[in-house]
Structures are given as C-alpha cells and as structure tokens.
Amino acid sequence: MKTEAKGLLLVVSAPSGAGKTTICKKFLKKNDTVKYAISTTTRLPRQGEQDGVDYHFTSKETFLKMVENGAFLEYAKVYNEFYGTSRKTVTELIEHGYDVLADVDTQGASSIRKLIPESIHIFILPPSLKVLEQRLRDRGKDRDEVIKLRLSEAKTEIRQSYLYDYVIINDKVDSAVDVLQSILIANRSDTNRNQGVIRTLLGENNE
Amino acid sequence: MKTEAKGLLLVVSAPSGAGKTTICKKFLKKNDTVKYAISTTTRLPRQGEQDGVDYHFTSKETFLKMVENGAFLEYAKVYNEFYGTSRKTVTELIEHGYDVLADVDTQGASSIRKLIPESIHIFILPPSLKVLEQRLRDRGKDRDEVIKLRLSEAKTEIRQSYLYDYVIINDKVDSAVDVLQSILIANRSDTNRNQGVIRTLLGENNE
Question: A173-192: per-residue pLDDT in tens?
Fold first, then answer.
C-alpha cells in the first residue's frame, strides 16, 4: 500500500511442496500494491524466465562483490549457485510505503529478522506430512530417495516454524491466501504503526 | 471458532460516537461462532432489552457480592449503576475453544489485560474529531455542553489507544468490520497458538 506510513515486509517460508509459490503468486495477484522482492541469482535463466521479473541474473563475481558490500538482507548457496535478497531494493520500497513480500528459506528468514526486526514472518505448513509426500509424488519430478530427503528436510524446517510470527496451514490454497491477506490487513492496523495517525487525529488536523 | 485450541478474547473499546456498537453487531452477525460477552448490570432493562441477551440484569446487592467474590474480569460504575464482565463466562467459553468479544471502556480493557494478558485489544477510532462531533450531533440526543464533554472524554480515551494491540479507523463501517475480521483470522494463525498443530504434524498423526 502506498501511504505516508512505512510499508510492511512479509517474509514467507515453507518446506518444498507446501504450496508456497502458488500462495504467494495468488496473493500478489490480489494485491498489486504489494511488491515481490525479486531475488538476485548466479544461476542461468531457464526457459521463459525474464531478468528483472523472475530474478535479477548476475555473475558469480558480481554476486560475491555484492555480498562483500553487504548488499543482501540474506543470501544462500544452493547446488553451487547463489541466491540473495537485495537490501537496498527492499528497504527503499518499504521506506516509500510499499509492502514487500520476500520468499526465503528458514536461514534467510532468520538473517532478515536480525536486520529488520519488525518484519512479519509467516511459515506455510502442509496439512500433514502424508499430504506433503503425496504432493511431492504428484509433481512426478523426484525419485523415491529424493522424496525421502525432501520429507526429512521438511521436518527440519517445520521445527524452525516456532521462530515465525504466523503459521498458515495450506489445506486449501484460496483459504491460505485469505489468511495471508488477513495477516497483512491486521498488521497494517498494528497500534505501533499508527502512532502518526493517532497524533494527527488528536490535534493537528482538527480545526 | 469451536476447535481443540483455546478461543481468543477480543477486547474492543472506542470513544462514544466512534461506531463501536454497529461494528461489533455486524461482526458478530458474520461470525456466529464468536460469542459476545454479555455484561452484567444493575440498571433496569430498557424497552425491548432481554435478560441474558442484552445484559444479565441483577440487583446492586448481588452485583457487589459478585465483585467481592472476584466474579468480574472488569467492572465500572456509570451514572450510579454498575456494569461488569463475568470472568467465569468468558474463561469457560475460551477454554471450550470459542472466541469471545468483550465491549468495554479503556479502564475495563486495562483490567482484562492484567487478568488475561493474551487477550487481543482493539481500539476503534473515528476518522477525525470533526467527524466524531458530527456523529454525536446527528444522534440528536445531546445538548452542546454534553457534546463538548463527550469530545473531551473522547480525546482522553484516544490517548489510551497506545495500550491496545490494534487501532481500527472507522471511516466506513463495512471496511472496519473487515479489519476486525482480519485481526481475528490473523491471530488464529499466531504461531504460539498453533504449537499443538505443529507437534501433531511433526510426528504423532503421521502414520
């Protein structure tokens, strides 16, 4: 939302297969004033991916220089490629009153919490591990061993969910999107965020 | 919401004329699983008021005995009559998983906070003092001096709003009801409230 007040930073994590990407996409579609924090990555663009839309693509050399310069709120190395969330982009959007959605892993969320303590952290849970396993199988991408590994990783990540402010159980995608929407609206009404409004109300604009 | 988890206690306050009663009524109509914390009062029923629906009507003697026995989460004396929120009713509903809405003044809210720290406190604000004054005048109930007094009381109350978790600006009633709804939904997703769900997910119901 473009307002006088600072925007909110929503940090979303989930185990693989919990439906995070679908939820985030639907949520962003409903809220064209919420900006997606586009990751910077060193991996090559895949078919159909656009620079500046899906990712900011960059070289490893540039990425590592950015790391050195503290350019990232968080970054991670996955399969020998780097992924990071630009500190400047996020903080500028927030300062200008836009809400921002960042989609990061549990370690990334923890790094962001240290740098932006007032960020709002949301963990998306599958309704059960059984459903999660089924979803991973339905993708048809992974072999049995990989699925077992993903499930074990999922458990480790879910154990970190207590560090988040909210958990959303993704039983039905649309309901999960609605909950995310409610979290945004509720946090916009947080008293601490509205001190300016209250001060204005109490005296300055009352002639 | 009737669930395994404990219900939420929503505590709502507002200055006279901010639209609290209308918002609460609309909100309760939309959420038949949220129970209204019916006040106990010593004043006589007015035309159309039903015992056990609008208020629990009682004698001063009984009321004061209840006060002595710690029966109230909060109580207040207004124009020589007493009003109180039953501790037993509220805690029993919450224990049974119902959400409860209590409509109390700023002092009542502060008493409830001490007894039920996890209660969620919401302050409803008028869009401006000018609008508040107009609304009080439109009621046509009060003379000029009374309206001046109400406005001065409103300012005192609004100064207490920083003690609340959320503030809702009642510009349009339906939007204000939606925000209240979002606050309820978001708080149901609070991580602390969902520790049981997460534990179950992680192991116990996964065969």
Answer: 999 999 999 999 999 999 99
Answer yes or no: do B185 and A166 touch at CB < 8 A: no
Task: Give the predicted TM-score (pTM) of the model.
Answer: 0.92
| Whether ipTM exceeds 0.85 | yes
Q: Which of A125, A128, A167 to mutate to test the interface with B (most CBs of B within 10 A)?
A: A167
Burial of B76 from C-beta contacts in 10 A (0-12 / 13-18 / 19+): middle
A186 touches chain B (CB under 8 A): yes
pLDDT digits (tens, 9 = 90+) for A57-80: 999 999 999 999 999 999 999 889
Q: At what angle do helices A129-139 and A144-158 cross, to 10 degrees?
A: 140
Q: Which residues of A touch B154 (CB under 8 A)?
A: none
For A111-135, give the DSSP string: HHHHH-TT-EEEEEE-S-HHHHHHH
Q: What is the pLDDT of residues A3-25, one digit of tens each?
A: 468 999 999 999 988 999 999 99
Confirm or reject CATH 3.30.365.10 for domain A9-202, answering yes or no.
no
Nearest-Cα residue of chain B relative to residue A124: B189
Q: Does any CB of chain A come closer than 8 Å to the CB of residue B204?
A: no
Q: What is the pLDDT of residue A179?
A: 98
DSSP letter at A192 equals G
Whole-number Cα distances in Å, A196 to A101, A193, A203, B186: 24, 8, 11, 23
Q: Where are the alpha helices (DSSP H) in chain B?
A: 20-30, 60-68, 87-95, 106-115, 129-139, 144-158, 173-188, 195-199
B129: nearest Cα among A135, A25, A202: A202
A135 vs chain B: nearest CA distance in angstroms? 15
In angstroms, rounded to a whole number, what is the distance separating the alpha carbons of residues A32 and B52?
A: 47
Distances (CA, A) of B168 to A124, A189, B81, B176: 27, 6, 29, 6
A140-154, A172-186, B42-56, B92-106: range with lowest mean pLDDT: A140-154
From the CB of residue A94, how many other CB atoms can be counted at a distance below 10 Å?
A: 19
Q: Are A186 and A129 in contact, with CB atoms under 8 Å apart?
A: no
